[in-house]
Amino acid sequence: MSKFFSSPLLVFFSAIALRITFLLYGLWQDANSPLKYTDIDYYVFTDASRFITHGHSPYDRETYRYTPLLAWLLLPTTWSSTWFSFGKVLFAIGDIVAGWLIVLVLRRQGMVMSRSLGFASIWLLNPMVATISTRGSSEGLLGVLVVALLWAVLRKRIVLAGVLLGVGVHLKIYPFIYAPSIIWWLDDENLSPGRNEKVQKVQEGDLVSKANAFVNVARVKITVVSLATFMGLNTAMYVKYGWPFIQHTFLHHVTRIDHRHNFSPYNTLLYLNSSISGSSPFCIESLAFIPQLLLSAIVLPLLLAKKDLPSTMLAQTFAFVSFNKVCTSQYFLWYMVFLPFYLPTSSLLQRPYLGISAGVLWVATQGLWLQQGFNLEFLGQSTFVPGLWVSSLMFFLTNMWLLGIIVSDVGSKTSLKPTAES
Question: Rounded to two decimals, what is the model's pTM?
Answer without folding.
Answer: 0.91
